[in-house]
Amino acid sequence: MTTIAEITEKLTRGETSARTEVEAALNAAEKLNDELNAFLEIDRAGALKRADAIDQKRGSGPLNGIPVAIKDNICVRGMQTSCGSHILGPYKPPYNATAIDRLLDAGAVIIGKTNCDEFAMGSSNENSAFGPVKNPWDTSRVPGGSSGGSAAAVAAGIVPAALGSDTGGSVRQPASLCGVIGVKPTYGRVSRYGLVAFGSSLDQIGVFAQTATDAATVMQAIAGRDPHDATTAQVPVANYIGETEKDIAGLRIGVSRTLLGEGLDKEVRDTIEKAIDAYRELGAEIVDIELPHAKYAIAVYYIIATAEASSNLARYDGVRYGFRAEEAPALREMYRKTRDEGFGPEVKRRIMLGTYVLSAGYYDAYYLKAQKVRMLIRNDFAAAFAKCDAVLTPTSPSPAFRFGEKVDDPLAMYLNDIYTVTANLAGIPGISVPCGLSAEGLPIGVQLLGPYWSEGLLFRLAHAYQQAHPLNARPKVHT
Amino acid sequence: MPISESDIEKIAQLAHLEITDDERRMFAPQMAEIVTYVEQLNEIETSAVEPALGGLTPEGERTESSRADETQESLGQKIALDQAPDPAAGHFRVPKVLS
Known about the structure:
The complex is a heterodimer of chains A (479) and B (99).
Chain A: H1 4-12, H2 18-36, E1 39-42, H3 44-57, E2 67-71, H4 98-105, E3 109-114, H5 148-155, E4 161-166, H6 172-178, E5 181-184, E6 204-209, H7 212-222, H8 240-244, E7 252-255, H9 266-281, E8 285-288, H10 297-312, H11 331-342, H12 345-358, H13 364-387, E9 390-394, H14 410-414, H15 421-426, E10 430-437, E11 443-449, H16 455-468
Parallel strand pairs in A: 2-3, 2-4, 7-8, 7-9
Antiparallel strand pairs in A: 1-3, 4-6, 5-6, 5-10, 9-11, 10-11
Helix pairs in contact in A: 2-3, 7-16, 10-12, 10-13
Chain B: H1 5-14, H2 21-38, H3 58-62, H4 77-81, E1 87-88, E2 91-92
Antiparallel strand pairs in B: 1-2
Helix pairs in contact in B: 1-2
């Protein structure tokens, strides 16, 4: 699988061109789309035009000539943005997300928009209005969600990097199920301007790549304060590549024995234990920590995320853009019909849950209570980080499951996020690193969580692991 | 606090969602299960805990995010109406508000 580092090297030596690389990516995207359904839109004309312009200009941006894919809930000017839903109709944003502008400034070439769970709500990419994405390792199984398309595109080698979004694990969990690196930055590290909002206190744009170094390169390009997003922080962006290559001997990695106990698939547990041993061999010190309120994280998340979603999705009403239901005699009916016809069942379920927990008489019992337990979860991590530099957990409780296995049991589906939602609640960064395959050949990922602004440390830990234990396997479906 | 089908109807009204009878029958037990699940938070003593509203890190809270009160470029009417389902005379036209 070609990496950003490899492409950049070849471009510098004149052994390839942006056009060649982008064309290869476009061909692969088109060729594999029947099998994977990873892309909702592939922009051949636009991407080739841009690749030619880059070859002409001979720029030297860190992502010069690199083909990338973008999750379809991130706005790219003039390209359809569906958020995996029917309700946006043919909507094409009149502006770029800030993260997109920064990728383009760095020289990247966007080849298309990737499939995802509707409005980023899901853990399997089965909630897309445009059909599920298939896992390149076994196409009868889910790629994870909600950024399933971006994960599959990188896993199959179509593009070396892709953007996704992570509200409860939607970058890290599909990265784990698809055997690639997936990273969610600290809340406020990357601008949410142009990321279609789901849970505004939880959402972050994240990065998929094959290697920690590649992921660091992309994160470097998109991170930083943005006046368009008041929740971005005025914190300097570290030199992630410089951090990534440092040795890890002496770093302390915290492990919660409780989290490795409950409901965890035995194969996942064994693989994570091997990863812990690997870190010990690399010179890290393994420290016992506990996260006493982590077991409440799903309950907290599904109150806060749904509450925020019910507010954020109120704007989809057929008035200004997107789909509008026909034959509605009056405004209220138009709203109701548009939203009933435009939204899928999971979105409706979450909007209703959110409406319920925010409604008069219930706000204190549910939403306020959840925000207080959220504070306790934040405090748990602060206490843990006094004893260790990073916390290690599995990313997902199981490898990729089969299509249809969990669609009729929403709560069972929600429990896939058990290890990932804590990072969104606490605002801390997290990375998933491929660390093994199950007996059925399905990827398993290990998750590292760090204090605020410690993305460099996470890349460093991921890189050290990958150097010592490369996955050395390819999915069944690949370029 | 079990959620009934009539609760679903009320919630759907608040959320401007028109759901079918089949959907109501499907959603009611699912939502009841989820609400029962989240009620485990009542086990935890939180009277002395501040809510973590907003999700900002300490650095995020300290970041000055207001701007100078000067006009900047905006979308403009033409672009704003460009994808409207029913633009008319510079407005977003909608079905009548009052029946």
